[in-house]
Amino acid sequence: MAHMDDDISDISECLIQRRRETLVSILSTAKPLHGRGFFRVNHSIVTSIIGAATTYIVVLVQFNISEKPLL
Predict the structure, then answer these.
(1) pTM of the entire structure?
(2) pLDDT at position 50, please?
(3) Ordered alpha helix ranges (H), 30-42
(4) Which has more confidence, 58 or 12?
(5) How far apart are CA 31 and CA 43, in angstroms?
(6) Rounded Cα–Cα distance for residues 65 and 32 (Å)
(7) Do residues 68 and 62 touch, judged by C-beta distance below 8 A?
(8) How many CB atoms lie within 10 A of CB 45?
């Protein structure tokens, strides 16, 4: 059983390393994105979109919780 755990651990480490290499490759060769020529999609826009979506989800969850009757 311990041998099997070691094999799984080795495979996991190999997969993590491959993911890192792939991510570095993608980030280093990524072409800039444009919004149909109107704007550039950069890190600040992506961060803003993620922040807005997260805030929206939190508000929805809070309203959903507040609508449930208290026992």
Answers:
(1) 0.45
(2) 92
(3) none
(4) 58
(5) 13
(6) 41
(7) no
(8) 13
3-state class (DSSP) for residue 51: helix
- Taking a C-beta distance cutoff of 8 angstroms, is the pair 11, 3 a contact? no
Tokens linked to 44:
């600040």
Name the helix (H) or strand (E) containing 9: helix 2-29
The residues spanned by each domain of the chain are 1-30, 43-71
Each residue of 3-56: pLDDT tens digit? 555 666 777 788 888 888 887 887 777 677 787 888 888 878 888 999 999 999
Q: How many helices (H) and strands (E) does the chain have?
A: 2, 2
Q: Which two tokens stand for residue 56?
A: 């929206």
